[in-house]
Design a protein that fits this description.
Largest sheet: none
Number of strands: 0
Number of helices: 12
Shape: globular
Number of domains: 1
Order of helices and strands: HHHHHHHHHHHH
Distance between the termini: 70 Å
Structural class: mainly alpha
Oligomer: single chain
Length: 268
């Protein structure tokens, strides 16, 4: 008689960093609306991108804060809500203004934690407030910075991120598993890079030079996009904590700022 194999216990590390697939009727229309909103904002210009990412970043920061509050850890609500728009909209005036705004977030987080003391003390309240604000703000600042270099880099990264999210969530949602979903997501990014390189061959999109450059940045995106959701999971108390707005931004958390830095190095 054959023995049934006992299922292996879940790996605590995997459960901590890999979010469960999001399924359901509402998820797909919201994802499509997010992609459409980015397309419209790209067409309108940097100010529209800043407003869009500031708005979604605010919701993401507040949802992250609520997730931690359910775990018994508190933040300064006013600073969490005001931080992303202050930083992202400040980036329209220049990166230095975004940096000053982020410094102001730290200062006001500290002051708020002193004025309204919470369990855990001032440092925990300050740190948790900044933790909720930084990632959504950095994504918005980086996307605005990419648009300042030209519409093509911003379009390419946002399109590749949308393709990665689509491949990951579709395959992850049908039970193929987290690893298979991410592999399909990376393959989707490479297919998108192929399409973008073909367009670049014809239209010579700035600031990209030879077609090989497009592949370099496409490969960079394929490497960095899977890291963002892991970072987002670590920003939350658990990987399955409800924070849908943060999950809309998560694949860009690592990719967007490092892409911007790489492009600065390339064009500079």
């Amino acid at each position: 008689m054959s023995r049934r194999r006992t299922p292996a216990p879940p790996d605590p590390l995997v459960e901590r960093v890999i979010e469960p697939p999001v399924t359901g009727f509402v998820h797909t229309p919201l994802a499509l609306a997010w992609v459409a909103g980015q397309g419209v904002a790209l067409w309108l210009g940097a100010w529209a991108l800043a407003v869009l990412f500031a708005a979604v970043g605010t919701v993401a920061a507040l949802q992250t804060m609520r997730a931690w509050e359910r775990a018994g850890v508190w933040s300064v609500t006013v600073v969490v809500g005001a931080g992303p728009p202050l930083v992202v909209l400040g980036s329209l005036a220049g990166l230095q203004w975004a940096g000053m705004a982020l410094f102001a977030v730290v200062v006001f987080a500290f002051v708020g934690s002193v004025v309204v003391p919470r369990r855990g003390g001032v440092l925990l309240g300050t740190g948790m407030t900044v933790r909720c604000v930084v990632a959504p703000s950095v994504v918005g600042v980086a996307v605005v910075g990419l648009d300042d270099l030209g519409w093509a880099p911003a379009l390419m990264l946002l399109a590749l991120a949308a393709g990665y999210d689509l491949g990951t969530h579709v395959w992850g949602g049908v039970g193929a598993g987290a690893l298979a979903g991410r592999v399909v997501g990376v393959v989707t990014v490479l297919v998108g890079t192929l399409a973008f390189s073909a367009v670049h061959t014809v239209f010579e999109l700035e600031p990209f030079g030879p077609t090989l450059t497009v592949w370099v940045f496409g490969g960079l995106a394929a490497t960095l996009l899977p890291l963002g959701p892991i970072v987002a999971s670590l920003l939350l108390p658990t990987a399955d904590a409800p924070a849908p707005a943060l999950r809309r931004l998560d694949s860009l958390i690592v990719a967007a700022p490092l892409w911007l830095v790489a492009l600065w190095g390339y064009v500079g």
